[in-house]
Amino acid sequence: MFSQFAKRYPSLSEILHLLFPMILTMTLELSISIVDTMMLGHYDSLHLAAVGLASSLWSPVACFMIGVTFGLTPLITRHLHGRQRKLVNLYMSQAFGLSLILGAIGAILSVTLLPMAAQMMASEAETQRVTAQYLYLFSPTFMALALMTSYKNLFEAAGKPRVPLLVATLSLILNIIFNYLLIYGNFGFPEMGASGAAIASAASVWLSLLVFVFYDLRVNGDTLFSRIDWYYVRNPGILFGVGLPAGFAFSFEIGLFSSLTWLISAFGDLALGAGQIVMSYSTILFTPLMAMSAVTAIVVAKAMATDGIEAVQQKVRIILALGLGYVSICFIVTQGFHDRIPFLFSSNEVVAAMAAGILLISSTYQFPDMVQTVFTGALRGFRDTRSSMIAMAVSLFGLSIPLGYWLAHLSPWADTLNVRGLYVGLGVGLTILAMILLARYRMTLKKFRNKKLPHPEEVA
Fold first, then answer.
1. Could you tell me if residue 456 is inside a domain?
2. Which pLDDT value is given to residue 240?
3. Rounded to an integer, what distance in angstroms lies between the CA atom of residue 349 and that of residue 342?
4. How far is 40 from 130, CA to CA, in rounded Å?
5. Which of 14, 74, 328, 330 could bond 301 through an S-S bridge, CB–CB 3.0 to 4.6 Å?
6. Which residues does 67 contact at the CB level (< 8 Å), separation at least 6?
7. pLDDT at residue 4 in the model
8. Under DSSP, is residue 449 helix (H, G, I), strand (E, B) or coil?
9. What domain range includes position 434?
10. Whole-number Å distance between alpha carbons of 239 and 230
11. HSE on the CB side for 436, CA within 13 Å?
12. What number of other Cβ atoms are within 10 A of residue 221's Cβ?
């Protein structure tokens, strides 16, 4: 039956073959932080607020590193599908080098500047202490996180999305077990609260990386990353040139939510807990959109190397239709159960009530968020990562944050909107961003009409 479906709808079949495993993979990966939130929410409200604050601080750093590895997708995809396959080792060697460098920088920030920022933002001394301790324990994880994402991108570009899915499943299971033992102190382990969650998350990331390496070298019959080229470990300029704007764009997008957390902290630690619930729930809903963006980048890069611009347009339209159906369902569910969803994350009724009000607003901007996510992936497939970076910086930080702050603190409706004003500003910024990226995508289509993606001199 599937073979008949694939023959009749080849483009849709190709997209779904990649999309479903990638959605599950990203859901499982991001579920690690969700598990932390849910388990800590039933442990202690201050520990929940501390982890929310810590996540808002380290997430932009980690997302920048992960975003840089997104540059692997357009570089590797066409080589894995017939052109100069040996170049994959060069790009992965560069990813290894960048992971070492950026991981060291991330670790240093996590034990120096980020704890200082936590002290300025948290009002409770206990929240400040727990946040700093979480950051110290998580700091060795940045390098593994970047390299693990590189392996995930590699297998997905090779058309093997089930391998990252299996690794993510194992990682989540381990994280739940470690959390159960270390947060609550079960089976004779010390009761560590948020610190236990940090250790559990770090251990699951490192073990996931080791599984990727072992599978590719020992189990995979067609090894993808067979050797390290130390010259390109020391000279990662090709990947860095493509990945740097993608890293900034991704960190801008995630950093926006972190900035909201920082701004929410002005309303107190209970509001901070509510913001963490909204972020965790929004992360769950955003995961399939991230997968759609990654799939879009892969199919666009592959289509431009083999079929041309008409195939690109067809596949992007299919992904947009799938995205519209998905966010419509999310909107209906969130609007209908906004007052019950927060209790999945916390038993505190005040925190849940604040989160419920925010969810009513956040559900409305899922539509422009889907559009901007798909077109970000499409432009990345064209190796145009600078446009997304600039558009996100202007619309999200140039518009969303100032507008949200004004609505929440200074506008005539500030007393009514309160913390919800920040999320209204976010919705406006995402709408502008979607419009900008749509316009840029259309310009790119005109540029490459009747052409295939040029083959640059990527290796000197």
1. no
2. 87
3. 9
4. 12
5. 74
6. 243, 246, 247, 248, 249, 250, 251
7. 57
8. coil
9. 2-448
10. 15
11. 19
12. 4
Residue 460 domain-assigned? Answer: no
For the chain, what is the mean pLDDT? Answer: 85
> How many CA atoms lie within 13 Å of 338's alpha carbon, on the beta-carbon side?
19
| Lowest model confidence (mean pLDDT) among 36-40, 188-192, 392-396 | 36-40
The DSSP-derived string for 58-86 is HHHHHHHHHHHHTTHHHHHHHHHTTS-TT
Per residue in 390-423, pLDDT (tens digit) is: 998 899 888 988 998 999 888 888 888 888 888 8
| 234 domain residue, yes or no | yes
Task: Name the residue with higher pLDDT: 103 or 87.
Answer: 103
* Whole-number Cα distances in Å, 322 to 228, 376, 379: 39, 16, 18
**How many domains are there within the chain?**
1
Q: What are phi and psi of 246, to 5 degrees?
A: -65, -40
In one letter, which amino acid is 115?
Answer: P
Tell me the H-state helices in 122-159: 125-138, 142-157
| Residue 457 lies inside a defined structural domain of this protein | no
Instruction: Show Cβ contacts of residue 211 under 8 Å, excluding neighbours closer than 6 positions.
Output: 167, 170
Digit-coded pLDDT (tens) for 362-380: 888 889 999 999 999 999 8
Integer angstrom CA distances of residue 11 from 18, 289, 371, 378: 11, 19, 20, 15
Q: Which two tokens stand for residue 436?
A: 């900008």
- One-letter amino acid for residue 252 of the chain: F
What's the average model confidence in pLDDT over 347-359? 86
Q: What is the mean pLDDT of residues 128-146?
A: 91
**What is the C-alpha to C-alpha distance for residues 291 and 298, in angstroms, rounded to an integer?**
11
pLDDT winner (highest mean) among 1-15, 43-57, 107-121:
107-121
